[in-house]
Write a structure and sequence with these properties.
3 helices; 23% strand; globular; alpha+beta; four-stranded mixed β-sheet; disordered C terminus
Length: 92
């Protein structure tokens, strides 16, 4: 099963929108979701603050700022899952 990580912070409107998109996709194409709040963690703040929300899929960064529902779904299905595609397109 795929693993999606969403790096986010409190009070980030784009993060809230990204979480809604990710959860919507998860309802259609199941995956493990990990939410990482970068707030107060210096290493994470340095790595992600200027780019949140950041979405990783199986350890690979695939989206920053905005998450494409169709792009995430295509990437999840690119491995040959039902309804999959040969090549996934994202908006990174």
């Amino acid at each position: 099963m795929h693993r999606v990580v969403l790096f986010h912070a409190q009070g980030c409107h784009l993060c809230e929108v990204a979480l809604d998109v990710v959860r919507d996709v998860q309802a259609e194409q199941p995956f493990v979701l990990e939410l990482v709040d970068i707030g107060g963690v210096p290493e994470l703040e340095t790595a992600y603050r200027e780019r949140i929300p950041v979405v990783e899929l199986d350890g690979v960064e695939v989206f920053t700022y905005h998450v494409s529902r169709d792009g995430l779904l295509a990437r999840l299905r690119a491995d040959g899952s039902p309804g999959g595609q040969d090549v996934a397109q994202g908006n990174m």
